[in-house]
Amino acid sequence: MGNKLVENLSAMTRSTLQVTPDILVLELTIVNAIIVNTGSNEWVLVDTGLENSGKFIIKAAEDRFGKGTRPKAIILTHGHFDHVGSVIELVRRWDVPVYIHQLEIPYVTGEKDYPMGDPTVDAGMVAKMSPTFPHTSIDIGSHIAELPADGTVPEMSGWKWIHTPGHTEGHISLFREEDRVLIAGDAFATVKQESITSVISQSEFMSGPPKYLTTDWEAAKKSVETLLGLSPQLAIPSHGKPIEGEKLIKHLERLVEDFDRIALPK
Question: What are the structural domains of the chain?
Answer without folding.
Answer: 2-262 (3.60.15.10)
